[in-house]
Structure formats: C-alpha cells, structure tokens
TrEMBL record:
Transmembrane segments: 12-37, 65-94, 106-123, 158-178, 211-238, 258-282
Cellular localization per UniProt: Cell membrane
This protein's name: Sugar ABC transporter permease
Species of provenance: Palleronia caenipelagi
SUPFAM superfamilies: MetI-like
Family to which the UniProt record says this protein belongs: Belongs to the binding-protein-dependent transport system permease family.
UniProt cross-references to Gene3D superfamilies, sorted A to Z: MetI-like
GO BP terms in the entry: transmembrane transport
Amino acid sequence: MATQHSRSAARLMMAPAVILLLGWMLVPLIMTLTFSFKKYLPLRGGDLGWVGFENYTRFVTSSAFWPSVVATLAIVGGVLVITIGFGILLAILLNQPMWGQGIVRILVIAPFFVMPTVSALVWKNMFMDPTNGLLSHLWRFFGAEPVSWLSEASMTSIVMIVSWQWLPFATLILLTAIQSLDSEQLEAAEMDGAPTFKRFLYITLPHLSRAITIVLLIQTIFLLAIFAEIFVTTGGAFGTRTLTYLIFQRVLEAQNVGLGSAGGVYAIILANIVAIFLMRIVGKNLDA
C-alpha cells in the first residue's frame, strides 16, 4: 500500500506535466475568450477596444451561422452511420480465417494514417474529377453521364471522403471487441439452431455496444472540428461550410479576430452539448 510520503512524491513528480498540460489548454482558451469581447482587426486598426457581447450577437445572427451548424451535424451524423455500419461488417469479415489475413488488415487500416489534406486531394483529383476521375470513367462505362461530385453532390462527397479516413479506426476498435467475444456462446447458439442473423443480433451486437460507444464518442469529438477536407475540396461552397470553416473565414479571410473568437466559443459550446447528449444516451454502456 502506498504511504503518504510516496503519494506526495508522486504528486510532486506529476506536477510539471499537469501544469504544462493545463497551460497548453487554458492559455489559448483564455485568449479566445478575451478576444471575443474585443473588436480586433489586425490589418484594419488592430485592437479597437472592448465591445462586450457584440461579436457574439453578430456571429449568431449571421445568415451563415445556422446553416453551418446544420452542415456540421449532417456531416458528423453521416460519417458516424457509415463508419459504424461498415466498421461492424468489416470487423466481422476480418475476424474470419483467410489467406493473408495480416496483410488484409494492414491494408484496411492504412487510410487512417493518411493526412486529411492528402486524402482529400486524392479523392478530389483521382476519384471525383468530372473529366478524368475514376468515378467518371465508371459512369461512362455504364452509359451514364458523369457527376460533378463536388458541386452536384457536395455533402455526399465530403461524407464519403471523411468516412474513408475514419472507417479504419472504427474497424480496428470493433475488430478488437469481436476478438474478445467468447466463441463458446456462438457455438452453443449455432448448435441450438439459431440462424446467423439472430446470432449477430442477440450475441455479437450486444457485445459490441461498448466498442460502438467508444467509436461514437471519439469520432464525434474530432468530426465536429472537420476543416481540411472542406478547405481542399469545396472551399465551403455548395452547402458544405461547417462551423469550423465559418470561423476560419471570419478570422483569416475577413481579418476579424474578435468575431472569429466568438465563433470559437460557440463551437466549444456546441461540442459540449453534443458530448453531454451522447454521454447521456450511450455513456451507460461504458459502465455495463
């Protein structure tokens, strides 16, 4: 059992890391809060003083605010449905004995290690280009007119690109969970004559509930801040401007740091609301 002296020594040794971590998080947050109450235009006069809640009012009453929130939630929801659905399917397939199983698993997981910017460029130029893209050639092969994906189906395109990046993560977590499933339960159900679908529905899926919860929470946190894929592909046009991209436009394009900082505070509030909602709905699975 740890003594009072050893616990004090442990706290002392951990203190520098904790202080550094708190500083890393708190300093940017405090600066954002400070700028959100100021009119700060770097190229048009600099710090013009305090304006109170004017930036918050301007940002939330902007015609672009609510569409950006809806676009953000739509992308997050679409990516979660695809990655969890196909992640379960891929995890089950990868758990089956096959030749070259290790190589196949590496190939499936590989897209997760590709930078978002590179991934978006590959999809934009290699797959979704309306003239020379692989999807355009496929459409012509079947006698259909090629689709200009990034303008005619922009939201679908963003969801596809982001899903391709995050599917390996979901597959890896779910595969690990499937491998921990007691095979005797499945064998007993099979001997009792339970069909494959019912074995999946009543044994495999409940066992995956905690893993699905983890995937849901982690992906949601990161997807709420999606930016690079939109910047590289649509530039926020065609209804794909998320809240993060709107903040970018206000800070860098409009050179209004105060207005962008207010948007950053709104983004933090949105992220916390979504996180609390998810924890209330599915967080109980973590304690099961």
